[in-house]
Every structure is written in C-alpha cells, then in structure tokens.
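ok so i was messing around last nite and threw this chain in just to see what happens. nothing serious, just curious
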Amino acid sequence: MKRTLAALAIALAVTPVLAGCGSDGSASSRLTAAEWRRDVNALCRELGPKIRAVRRPVAEAQILPFTAAVIPLWKREEETIRALVPPPELTTPAEELADALAEVNVSLLEIHIATQRNDGVRRYYAVRRLDTAARGVRLRSRALGLSACAKQRVR
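result:
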C-alpha cells in the first residue's frame, strides 16, 4: 500500500501549477499580505466551482471517479499556495494551510486506495481524517482572511 500511495503522490506532484504563480523566493518576489490573500482567494474562486462540479459520491461505485477528479484540483491548490511567497508575517500560517491541504490530499488518496481494495475499515478512518483535515483548511483559511478558500467543500 505504501508503494501505491507513494506512486500516486509522485504522479500528483507533477500536476501543473498555475502559470505565473511561481517564485524564486527572493525578497523582490515576496508578495505583500494583500497581494498574497488576493492571489490565494483568486485560486480558490477558480478551483471552488470545479470541485463543486464533481458529483458527490452517494454510492460506493462513485467514490473512485470522485477522488480521481478532485485529487488533482486539491493538489493544484496546495502546490500553488506553496509556490506563492507570502510576507514574513504570513509565512508560517501559509505553510500550515498548505500542510492542511496536503492532509486533505493524503486522506483522499487513502480513500481512493481503500476503495480500490474494498477495505471499508480503512476507508472509514480515511474519511474521518479527511473531515478533520477539511476543518483545518477552513479554520486556517478564515484565520488568514481567505474567504473564498474557507467556503470550499471537500466532499
């Protein structure tokens, strides 16, 4: 399972990041707090409708298509947030938000794999971790003033 999870994580890591959002980390590329919030909220406004457009699974047979569709979107959000260089006062909270998004991705991957293996117990615990991670994303988004991100739904 670890190999499969690692392979999926590596495959998702190559998901393209928004053009123009990358940075070399130099002081001149560091964003102001307002610019960082603007860019992250814009990202969430772009990806939110795409995530909501994916039909929520109401039956076990719909879980795999759902996770396959939303994992790349959540991964893109995480990678883009990591690529943006926030001001020093937002560095730690921004990293915590990206880490919470990474936890959402890991949980979704675990749900996907557990469903493939017909392992209801692992899927149950992965869904619980997903719910906790999603709450973390919402709380961190609100604390950072990211209203569009705080409104996103995970499942």
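not much to say yet. Residues 88-116 form the longest helix (29 residues).
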